[in-house]
Amino acid sequence: MSDFRVLSPTMLASPQIGPADVVEAAGQGVSLIINNRPDGESPGEPQGPEIEAAARKAGLDYLAIPIGSAGFGEPQVEAMQQAIGNANGKVLAYCRSGTRSTLLWSLAQARAGEDIDAIAATARQAGYDVSPVRAAMDALSAQSKS
C-alpha cells in the first residue's frame, strides 16, 4: 500500500516506492516520478533503474535528482523547480522517508516566489517539518522578489 502524501493538487511526496507503487501512481494521474534518493543508499530496496523501468512501462516520465549526505544545492533546487513546472500532470517525488523530497519541493516553491508560511503549513499537514531549510526558503523567497 502506497504512502503518497499530498503537498499540492499536483505534487505528492512519498517514502521509498516500488514497481507496484508506480502503477498506483499512474492510476492517480501522476505523469512524472522524481527520485531524490541516491542509488546504493539502501541496497535492499528498489534502486533508480528499477523504478525508472517501471515508470517507463507505465507511460510515466522519470527523473533522478538525488539528495545525498552533502545535502541540498542550488542545482538540485533549480532542477526540481523546472521538473515541477514542466510536468504534464501530477508529480510524485520520493526518497527514504519523503522528507528530502518535501524539503526540496519546499525550496523549489520558495525559489518560485510561493508563500513561505503556506509551504510550511502544507508540508506540516502532510507530516513533514520544513524548519531545517526555513532560512534557505526565506533567502530563496527574497531572491525571487528582487
TrEMBL record:
Record keywords, A-Z: Transferase
The species this protein was found in: Altererythrobacter rubellus
Residue ranges constituting the Beta-lactamase hydrolase-like protein phosphatase-like domain according to the UniProt record: 3-111
SUPFAM superfamilies documented for this protein: (Phosphotyrosine protein) phosphatases II
Residues in the signal sequence: none
InterPro entries: BLH_phosphatase-like (IPR005939), Prot-tyrosine_phosphatase-like (IPR029021)
Descriptive protein name: TIGR01244 family sulfur transferase
One function term, GO molecular function aspect: hydrolase activity
